[in-house]
Amino acid sequence: MKRGRIILVLVWLVAMTLWAGWAFRGQIAVRLMEPQIAKAMGRNLASELPDGLHVMVCGSGSPLTDLKRSGPCTAVIAGTRVFVVDAGEGSQETLAAAGLSPAKVERVLLTHFHSDHIDGLGGLTLQHWAAGASKSPLPLVGPTGVEQIADGLNLVYAQDKVYRVAHHGEAVVPPSGFGLVAQPFVAPAKGPGVVILNEGGVKITAFSVDHEPVSPAVGYRFDYKGRSVVVSGDTARSPSLVLNSKGVDLLVHEALSPRLVGLLGTAAGDAGRGNVVKVTKDILTYHTSPEVVADEAKAAGARALLLTHLVPPIPIRALEGPFLGDARKRFDGPLWVANDLDLVSLPAGSTAIKKSHIR
Questions:
Q1: Helix, strand or coil for residue 105?
Q2: Are 296 and 242 in contact (CB under 8 A)?
Q3: I need a surface site. Which of 212, 224, 245, 330 has the fewest CB within 10 A?
């Protein structure tokens, strides 16, 4: 009997413990959340990294629906300076999750004006203004035509500006810091690029790529303290890209798998969606397969290759092999399929190339 009573008491204690935990789960969750909020508010990834060039993937997706990837976006950190190349949908949230406040972004550089490369600009621009009480608009750099993008977004958000200033006050959201300011440059002819920034040890070179009928379309090369990164933008096979990527430490390049896109086209045809079938054929003409990217990276003498702007989406890792095809056989350096929050570091004064993932 005594043993039975002990068991009953133990069962009662466990039940009460579980009930208390269930009853107070909200308070427990708040207590657990508090340090996470403090950590997120105080984090600045750029100041945590060693001096050098770093690439953080703030969007590895494409126009095709991919719940695991934001739209095209590549953050390049040179020392503590933060540059963003393209701003696809969801990229502002990915930047913030990585500890890169949009308020710290110095410039956004557009490779071209396809919607999937600019449809995250609204959120990024708002956070640059409101999260940092910025007194100057966010510079939007790009080839001629970027003025229309900046002016259009400023017009769309003009009423939002009125509301936020009225609600929070000019000290919190200075009117002078609202929106975007265009910094256009004339896209060079295909071949050698043109230097669009050379200050504080950071040099950015823009060069034209092949994304017809989209024109202008450019890629960017970043050089800082002996380390280098090229971001291709969207392009088909491009001798200009190879020329401007000579000896680069890291080539960040878009990639499309014709084999997997073919599966999409077949499924669309079976479903009677002729327009989608046409799109799956058209996109083959102005993107690059992983195998061709590997060939170009080898020809350029690139030391490492990161594939992004993935078409079609890769929902499971087992599809990376079919997506890459023979690319690993054609390029013998490190080759990665990008995921959002991937980080590749090129420390100054070193030849090291280190890949990690931000959690």
A1: strand
A2: yes
A3: 212
Sign of CA dihedral 357, 351, 235, 285: negative
Which amino acid, one-letter code, is at 332?
D
Task: Report if residue 171 sits inside a domain.
Answer: no
Position 47 scores a pLDDT of: 86
Q: Across residues 325-354, what is the average pLDDT?
A: 97
Residue 140: pLDDT over 90: yes
Q: Residue 236 gets which letter from DSSP?
A: S
Task: Identify the three-state secondary structure at position 345.
Answer: strand
Over 90: is that where the pLDDT of 278 sits? yes
Does any domain span residue 160? Answer: no
pLDDT at 197: 97
Helix (H), strand (E) at residue 319: none
| CATH code for the domain in which residue 271 is found | 3.60.15.10
Q: Which residues on adjacent β-strands are paired with residue 335?
A: 305
- Return d(Cα 105, Cα 101) in angstroms, integer: 7
339 vs 5, higher pLDDT: 339
Section 180-184 average pLDDT: 98
Backbone φ and ψ of 316, nearest 5°: -130, 150
Q: Convert the pLDDT of each residue in 160-176 to its tens digit.
A: 999 999 999 999 999 99
Lateral strand order in the sheet of 180-185? 180-185, 138-143, 105-109, 81-85, 73-78, 52-59, 342-347, 354-357
Tokens of 137: 């608009």
Task: Decide if 128 is inside a domain.
Answer: no
Range of the domain at 328: 50-114+182-357
**Apex CA 153: angle with CA 213 and CA 115, to 5°?**
30
The domain total for the chain is 1
Q: Taking phi first (over 0 means left), then psi (-120 to 50 degrees means alpha), and beta for anything else, what does residue 145 get? A: left
Please state, in angstroms and rounded to a whole number, the distance separating the CA atoms of residues 54 and 80.
10
Confidence grade of residue 65 (pLDDT, cut at 50, 70, 90) = confident
Distances in Å between the Cα of 289 and the Cα atoms of 35, 235, 275, 292, 331 are: 44, 10, 22, 5, 13
| 4 falls within a domain | no
